[in-house]
Amino acid sequence: MRISLRWLRELCPVLLSDDEMAQRLTFAGLEVEGRERRALGEGVVAARVVKSAPIAGSDHLSICQVDDGEGTHQVVCGAQNYAEGDVVAMARVGVRLPGGVEIRKAKLRGVESSGMLCSPRELGLSDDHSGLLILPPRTRIGAPVEELLGLPDTIFEVNVTPNRPDALSHLGVARELSALTGVPVRMPFTQPAGSGELPARVDVEDPQRCPRYIARVIDNVRIGPSPLSIQERLRSLGVRPINTVVDATNIALLELGHPLHAFDLDKLAQNRIVVRRAREGEPITTLDGKERKLSADDLVIADAEKPVGLAGVMGGQTSEVSPTTKRVLLESAMFEPKGIRRTARRHGLHTEASHRFERGMDEETAAFAADRCAELIVELAGGRVLPGAVDRYPSPKPPTRVWVRPARISAVLGTRVPSAEVEQRLESIGLRPLEGGEERRLWAVPSWRGDLTREIDCAEEVARLRGYETIPIAIHPAGIGETAAIRAPERATAAGRAALAAHGFDEVINYSFVAERDLVALYVGQPAPAVIRVANPLTAEQGAMRLSLLPGLLRNVSYNLARGPHGLELYELGRIYLPMPDPRHPQGPLAWPAYEANHLGLALTGRKPKSWTGGGEPFDFYDLKGAVEDLLEAMGIEGVRFAPIEVPAFHPATSAALLVGDSRAGLLGQAHPQVAEHFEVPPQTFLAELNWDFLLGASRPLKSFHGVPKFPAVERDLAFVVDAGVPAEKLLEEIRTADSAHLLEEVTLFDLYRGAPVPEGKKSMAFGLTLRAADRTLTDAEADALIARIRARLEKNLGARIRA
Amino acid sequence: MIEQIEKLLGQARSELASAADEKQIEAVRVKYLGKSGSLSGLRKAMGSVPAQERPRMGKLVTDAIAQFEGLLEEARKNVSRKSLEADLQREKLDVTLPGRRLERGRRHVVSQAFDDIIEIFARLGFHVADGPEIEWDLYNFEKLGFPSDHPARDMQDTFFLETRLPPPPGSPPGTHGQQLLLRTHTSPVQVREMISHPPPVRIIAPGKVYRSDSDITHTPMFHQVECLHVEEGISMAHLRGTLDAFAKAFFGPQVKTRLRPSYFPFTEPSAEVDISHPLCDGKGCRVCKFSGWLEVLGSGMVNPDVLEGVGYDPEKYTGYAFGAGIDRLAMLRHGIDDLRSLFENDVRFLEQL
Ligand SMILES: [Zn+2]
């Protein structure tokens, strides 16, 4: 809401500077978000064009002789919209215009020019640059234009929250200022209705949607442009001046906040107003020139035949006030907020009127606004207000009444507010005491404060008027002794993140919505599972809730590779969204609408960092697997296995399932070539996606101490050749099975070799074994016996051949 | 003979002093103590010494040999010390070569802020609560005082979901509350928490939220943390206390907070919270538009209607709540000026923080 400080000071003549006003209003809840200074200074004056002649050789420049009351000046001018004898705005030499231009003596086309004749845009008044600002012919020559326009002024941009429609007006802000300073509001003049019969008939068919409808008639109006100061006032507040009558309704709107509408009474069929629902599909052409098809839910103002306005939203063209209008029917009504909002949204309209009616106007102000606007129309357009008003108000609304206990207000605010102060604050915003005593009193709320219905609302009024800075700072002792314990999932998450960081993985955060085609691409030819779709995404790239973290990570890889880095290690820990009930949040009032599972995604590609000591090798599957193994170890997850698997998104030859116990806890491996192609990432991109919720459930991040071994260990190496297809896990399994006495403490694969002299189709593997008994020093004979058993098992079950 | 011994020892001393290494020392030893060495030769010469002189002379020779061996030992130590000194001087490392480092991965700046916030509130006695991001209108709006067709809804541009899922239990079919949406704030967790727990309630709920808006200060997804404290005797002074403690813990002890009246449907009274700008120390700069203050969150006393809606007695229990944009808090801490850069995941951005 734009607020003119000049106007505001007319309504509440406070002695505060602009800065002080901004401060006081902001800290009372009417945040001043911006301000604009509108001023021209003394040097822009009304001047008469005495003579004007074109400059030879120029197609548009003229030499003007201009009288500014102090003398005649020669000024070169490029505009065409004036004639000799016109009064225009002239900036004298030395003046700095609002745009920053300084007027100097100059030579244009060899002609001396001292001063400048200005367009409204050059004066910073509007965007109009079509010609000079022409002033009324009887303007006093030499008068500062600023004075004629009602300037200087400062315009505040005030952020009015949706609960305060009363503050969407100068009177509303003035009331606020009055409550803050004690300076009384000066109410504007009105034309009370009196009694009389009007030459118009009003029927309200839907009193629910239109609880009050007031009509006044003004006869014999003159339609024309409003005085410059009115035009400037409207423009400075963001409203386009139209004509005397429409401008009067807009001035009344900006002053009181209540939307009003003026009809040309003679264009209303049978001089009738019918407030009714539209018929489904009924047409209307609104003032913006658009033809609209109405819905049966739309409330319209109709005449005897057709809709002439969308009630509370926008008027219609057929009954518009025009230069020939003689008799005006002025409408001041109250419409139900929700209905207005539905109509405004349905037709994509947001007007000064709908904005206010949506938030709630009031029936009492409607009456006052009718009287005030009638006065303004007569001031601007002349004519005569016919005595009497049509007032359709079948069920007058009683004032809202609220019980207030000052002690309760003090308790909520955390500081003692004396009863006397509570009462003074409430009275300052227009509440009236009805009954009760100091401890508990009943108050009548003024009609324009529809937001005050409960004691707590009054507590807020008291708090903001005395200032939130009066609320002390207190620390509640709640937490002491009750601080939440560090739970296992938090510990496991921290440990897992630390393991990933140690491996060099950077954390990313992607949007939860992805392009559906990216999800489809992951499934490589197979049908993608059901997905949750956003009905109104900002772009198609954000149309589907992610089913996997991989599309985001793959996009990150491709984005970053395009910008240069040689190696990437990325992880994301976040939710995926499945269209099914969430097994963790059972039915009941706390059910979750969808299954939001936490996943961990990893992506790895490119080369390891290179330094003078080495590095620079390409990342491969075992880098990814090692990271996953370290992660699981850090989280305290045991019983982990990896098994080859063929699944969509992953390369069938180089991918594995992560198994914890018997459950699949995730997938890891190389990106499927088609996936790599779709996301424009290198074929050697490795991905993992793990079920984080499951891993947290399986983790034991707090470990137990098992004592330090008391007896020495025996180390033995064992190397053998075996078929290349035998998986490492199989060998380890056989070695462990042979160890029936549980002497094997650790087995490490320290060498893997293929190629000569190892025969084709075979591989050589070497294991380091650490043997130890818990209760004695192991003898060589015992160790030899175990090694022999292992050898025998490997030879018999896997056809291994032991190497010397 | 005595003179001869003195002379030989004198010679040996000077030869050993000039011996540069073990080999030369050995040569000196052989020269004096070898088979035909000059000192060992003295023993052979004993035969020619008169019998009564022999014991005395014999002792002189034995002493001389012992003395020579002492000299040899000294010379050896000397040589080895010198060679150690030479070695120490020779093996100079280039300490300016880069060390063998591990590439450390970084936490996302938002997730760093998450951890700090959770930690700070744990110290103040709050625990973490969780809620769904795919939410029903019922919890995101209606139970928080945003009725349908109410302008307060314009404050939050909402993403709706077109997918059909079962409605919230107990809500009449076909009502507005069943509409599925992406939660626009973390506040629905307040409702869920209070429905499921009797007072007192002291929780924070950090998480992702969504609004259909995108420019330098808005992304369609961002992060909030909700704080809710309801029990008997809670006042707005406690709200100020918690906010102030949080701001000081997160930004530093010099940071000040202030409240400005505002409006949120689910709090009454409501307040915007400003902090003194930590980067310019509240003196005013370009980032804070020369005011010295920055708006960081919305807060207020829980609206009695919300309490009543979850079955709490609003006459007995009061509480405060606030919701802060975590991304904005993180940006302020690190001097990041474009919100969108948080979700581009450019490693050149990630690895700086
Ligand atoms: Zn600053």
Structure keywords:
heterodimer, A: 804 residues, alpha+beta, seven-stranded mixed beta sheet, six-stranded antiparallel beta sheet, 20 helices, 27% helix, B: 353 residues, BirA Bifunctional Protein, domain 2, 2 domains, 11 helices, 9 strands, rod-shaped, binds zinc ion
Structural class of chain A: alpha+beta
**Spatial order of the strands forming the largest sheet of chain A:** 27-30-31-37-36-35-34
Unreliable segments of 5+ consecutive residues of chain B: none
> How helical, in percent, are the residues of chain A?
25-40%
Give me the secondary-structure topology.
The complex is a heterodimer of chains A (804) and B (353).
Chain A: E1 2-4, H1 5-11, H2 18-26, E2 31-38, E3 44-54, E4 62-67, E5 72-77, E6 87-91, E7 106-108, E8 111-113, E9 116-117, E10 134-135, H3 145-148, E11 153-159, H4 170-181, E12 201-204, E13 212-219, H5 228-236, H6 244-256, E14 261-264, E15 272-277, E16 283-285, E17 291-293, E18 299-302, E19 307-310, E20 314-315, E21 328-334, H7 337-346, H8 352-359, H9 363-381, E22 384-385, E23 390-392, E24 401-404, H10 406-413, H11 419-428, E25 432-436, E26 441-444, H12 455-466, H13 488-503, E27 506-507, E28 513-514, H14 516-522, E29 544-545, H15 550-561, E30 567-578, E31 595-606, E32 610-611, E33 614-615, H16 621-635, E34 640-644, E35 650-660, E36 663-671, H17 673-679, E37 685-691, H18 692-698, E38 714-723, H19 728-738, E39 744-753, E40 762-771, H20 780-798, E41 801-802
Parallel strand pairs in A: 12-15, 27-30
Antiparallel strand pairs in A: 1-11, 2-11, 3-4, 3-6, 4-5, 6-9, 6-10, 7-8, 13-21, 13-22, 13-23, 14-21, 15-18, 16-17, 18-19, 19-20, 24-26, 25-26, 28-29, 30-31, 31-37, 32-33, 34-35, 35-36, 36-37, 38-40, 38-41, 39-40
Helix pairs in contact in A: 1-4, 6-9, 7-8, 10-12, 11-12, 13-16, 19-20
Chain B: H1 2-18, H2 22-33, H3 38-44, H4 54-90, H5 109-123, E1 127-128, E2 134-136, H6 137-140, E3 180-182, H7 188-196, E4 201-210, E5 221-232, H8 236-251, E6 257-264, E7 267-276, E8 293-302, H9 304-309, E9 317-325, H10 326-334, H11 347-350
Parallel strand pairs in B: 1-4
Antiparallel strand pairs in B: 2-3, 4-5, 5-9, 6-7, 7-8, 8-9
Bound molecules: zinc ion.
The site of zinc ion (ZN) has 8 residues of chain B, from loops.
